[in-house]
């Protein structure tokens, strides 16, 4: 019964909290309006998400978050080194077509978000059959190195989390 009213309770709680923070008030009217939005928006958007994500290994998700944060910090310095370095370093960008083992739609979306969020890499395209991902890399010295790195640091943990 509760799942029918609140399909995503954490999302509803987050929406209510954001509404109150953005309006900087705890007045009864804003609490009621925020609660209405927090219940209504997930109900309204529920048909857009026919497949529910299930985190099979939350501890791996927390570890992956740490890896992504550390990689993002390191990549900021690497990108600065490329941009401020010689012209030869700046002309070393390229595309990688990475074969995928990950098939879960939530895992694939998360992988694309991670690659786009980390400086120096951008996810460009996912094949229609989900067999490969096209990635642009700012400093492409060794294509296999990048494929192995992405596979071990991001794809394998995402498979543990979602599949």
Gist of the model:
Helix content is 62%, strand content 11%. The chain is mainly alpha-helical and 163 residues long. β2 and β3 (132-137) form a beta hairpin.
Cα(first) to Cα(last) distance is 27 Å
- Average residue pLDDT: 91
- Described by the principal axes of the CA atoms, the overall outline is globular
Number of strands: 3
SSE diagram, text form:
Elements: H1 2-5, H2 9-23, H3 28-45, H4 58-84, H5 87-90, E1 94-99, H6 105-117, E2 121-126, E3 132-137, H7 143-162
Antiparallel strand pairs: 1-3, 2-3
Task: Tell me what you see in this structure.
By secondary structure, the chain is mostly helical. The protein folds into two domains: 2-48, no CATH class; 58-162, no CATH class. The protein is 62% helix and 11% strand. The chain contains seven helices and three strands. A hairpin with a 5-residue loop joins β2 and β3 (132-137). The protein starts with a helix and ends with a helix. The mean pLDDT is 91.
Characteristic terms for this protein:
single chain, 163 residues, mainly alpha, globular
